[in-house]
From TrEMBL:
PANTHER family the UniProt entry points to: GLYCOSYLTRANSFERASE (PTHR36529:SF1), SLL1095 PROTEIN (PTHR36529)
Gene3D superfamilies: Spore Coat Polysaccharide Biosynthesis Protein SpsA, Chain A
Species of origin: Desulfofustis glycolicus DSM 9705
Domain of life: Bacteria
A Pfam family assignment: DUF2064
Protein name: Glycosyltransferase
Length: 212
């Protein structure tokens, strides 16, 4: 029997420490509220997926504890993010999920919590894509990606290509990632390009979606 995992990366919405680039526009409380709302939206879509599709949801959190996260988001599996850069955090989370699978075939998909257009249809598409490809990526408009997934079988070979010595938070993350994967013969499929909510210019999308 296969075992698929959906990992959600988020942080506890603490005023002054959440969505700091938006504090100038929204204030500390408003930025934390937006972090809360975006995470709840993504978790709701993940729960909808789990009601239709056999997937295990894990919330990997920063700046909070398991009790706070559980009180906020409900009874899910919670894991604290490891220390280090984004690549180390994501790599550790995906390796942990693959280890939990054991010998069962399956896939792991990891998403951020600041993409309001992630929905159950897109999540289903990500897992279905991995039936025919080794890696799936969801490009974001800032040059990075909002979703990364892979089959458990290729984890040992592909995880270092994805996460080791990457120049995070630059406009070339997706480009460099695709270059590494292509140079190593990995089959990759891209999902639709979406916008993450991180800067003041991104707030127009939030208003358009009725979230602000």
């Amino acid at each position: 029997m296969s075992a698929d995992y959906l990992l959600i990366f988020t942080r506890y919405p603490r005023p002054g420490r959440s969505k700091t680039r938006l504090i100038g526009e929204l204030g500390p409380e408003g930025a934390a509220w937006l972090q809360r709302r975006l995470t709840e939206r993504v978790v709701d879509e993940a729960k909808r997926l789990a009601a239709q599709y056999p997937v295990q949801i894990q919330v990997h959190f920063y700046d909070g504890d398991e009790e706070q996260l559980s009180d906020w988001l409900g009874p899910l599996v919670y894991r604290p993010q490891v220390e280090g850069d984004l690549g180390r955090k994501m790599g550790a989370a995906m390796r942990g999920a693959i280890e939990e699978m054991g010998t069962a075939p399956g896939s792991v998909v990891l998403i951020g919590s600041d993409i309001p257009q992630i929905d159950v249809s897109l999540l289903r598409q990500a897992f279905r894509t991995l039936a025919w490809n080794e890696v799936v990526l969801g490009p974001s408009r800032d040059g990075g990606y909002y979703l990364v997934g892979l089959t458990a079988a290729v984890g040992p070979r592909v995880l270092p290509l994805l996460f080791d010595e990457m120049r995070w938070s630059t406009e070339t993350v997706l480009y460099e990632t695709l270059g590494r994967l292509g140079a190593n013969g990995c089959s990759v499929q891209l999902l639709p390009t979406l916008r993450d909510i991180d800067r003041p210019e991104d707030l127009a999308l939030i208003k358009e979606l009725g979230l602000l």
